[in-house]
């Protein structure tokens, strides 16, 4: 049974309040008006999703957030007389009627106007007058208005509506020629014949059809007020002016562009997909520079600790761990078993060869999925340094054994069978190991770091898989917190002057507080935690692309495919970068204050992970974000290509037995 009042409250708090609408009257009015009474029969269960829904005559009831946003822009107050053009379902008029003295609303479709009228009567909303007609001509008999809200998009702001504003009155209207994207405009009457204009960014509405709007066939019937462009230079032009073109990856000038971040403790390098070669090569070029010139010694990546440890052994010329299976055998194998990562690890190995162990750069994994690999590594370590402790550890980890290889079923077992939890056992094991740090580390500090990090991973992973079945933000937050804490342990182990480069997806690196993740879903990430811990000593660098190919699967555990990346969405940051016509660039978001301000307003941003579903791209891969708050800099590659996974054709002879990518 749907708890609609609860869903309504949640919608107001999360989709409206947390996205920046703070006007109490609006929030209260939205808590009061039952949106389920304004949707078509059968759509009630979706009434509190933050999305527009279809209504009769091919029209829509607007998204709740946009309704709130437009009412806030119109600055409506108790006592006001307000005109709405485009009654539709009547929902927006109903919300405004809970705030102001009188609402007048006009709808061109008689059926919609009639239905809305009946809804108002049923709910006892008596301060709304509905009329069927062409709203572009306004409602002269009821003018002047304190505010006019138009919920359909026109070619300009109709003159009749401007003239029916009181002095100080506000007209809010979407305008523009593109059916997929218009600008939300606010026109304020400042005097008898004077008006000011503000632009509130991209929106998408159904067309305003009428004498001072569009004709039925889409052409302009009569020109409204010509649009004065509020900003003299377009955003893509401003991006082009600020863009610093990127040289070839192998050109030292590429890395030199990032010297500006050399004094940071942590430089985090994102990626907009897990299967794009340019993102890996850019990160490799930047990291080479930071290691060679600026004393960075930690490369911490979004891979599982025990798997990355195999690369670490290779790049630092250490012997292989006995009994360890081949790394990176689990889905998604191409993410680390690819030609770009192999080339980078070869570079690290060559460079480390000439150096003392303390000066070498290491390669570490931050992620928690490979629990069975970690259990093997802890047992192997204890077998060598303390066989008695190994026996106890075997017993403790035995609790997890049935699930080691399919840990995602562990959470289900805990939930359904009230199964004895392994939590206590794995935590005790981790604590024991850490308590003996001094004894063990005397034998070999690096090995101890490896084993203790594996023990921590097992404890986090046990928790992660236990709560995964509850869904929601908690398991994501646990994973990102574990990744951040692993990074902290690495920095601590490296001493006060240690510096790290992090490679992970944009969704982990871009500060979550400025994306839908944090705003709507309460999720945090490594980027946010680094900023909170290191302040200006952390640099968050994102990456993006317009089109090309990407290596990704269609489903979890599916085969890797090389997929075409769709051209970026018209209302995305990616499209702004594409329209700059600069094919590869660095955009330093801290340099140009005006550009930063212009980019602040939230837009769509594309996130492709190990799965890419172009067919449902808008719903499954785009989210709202404020780019200049999310990142300190952004790298752009207009056209990109899929990574090349390591296959039999890459088999090498004569490689050391630590080579992590053997076949
Ligand atoms: N405010 C509505 C709600 O809360 O459900 C949503 C309105 S819908 C996005 C836009 C409406 O504007 C449609 O119902 C459409 O028929 C109407 N419309 C378009 N041109 C119009 C015009 N010239 N006069 C009056 N209504 C118009």
From TrEMBL:
Where in or outside the cell?
Cytoplasm
Extract the InterPro entries matched here.
Emycin_Estase (IPR007815), Hydrolase/PRTase-associated (IPR052036), PCMT (IPR000682), SAM-dependent_MTases_sf (IPR029063)
Q: Cytoplasm among the record's keywords? A: yes
Q: Which GO terms describe its cellular component?
A: cytoplasm
Tell me the enzyme class: transferase
The active-site annotation reads: 62
The reaction(s) catalysed by this protein are:
[protein]-L-isoaspartate + S-adenosyl-L-methionine = [protein]-L-isoaspartate alpha-methyl ester + S-adenosyl-L-homocysteine
User: Per the annotation, which location comes first and is thus the protein's main one?
Assistant: cytoplasm
Can the keyword Methyltransferase be found in this entry's annotation? yes
- The EC number(s) given in the record are 2.1.1.77
Record CDD domains? AdoMet_MTases, Ere-like
Show the coiled coil region(s): none
Q: Which UniProt keywords apply?
A: Cytoplasm, Methyltransferase, S-adenosyl-L-methionine, Transferase
Q: Name one Pfam family in it.
A: Erythro_esteras
Any one GO molecular-function label of the UniProt entry: protein-L-isoaspartate (D-aspartate) O-methyltransferase activity
A single BP term in Gene Ontology: response to antibiotic
- NCBIfam families (UniProt xref): pimt, PRK00312.1
Task: Show the HAMAP family listed in the entry.
Answer: PIMT
Task of the protein: Catalyzes the methyl esterification of L-isoaspartyl residues in peptides and proteins that result from spontaneous decomposition of normal L-aspartyl and L-asparaginyl residues. It plays a role in the repair and/or degradation of damaged proteins.
Q: Which family does it belong to?
A: Belongs to the methyltransferase superfamily. L-isoaspartyl/D-aspartyl protein methyltransferase family.
Q: What is this protein called?
A: Protein-L-isoaspartate O-methyltransferase
Organism, by scientific name, is Mesorhizobium ciceri
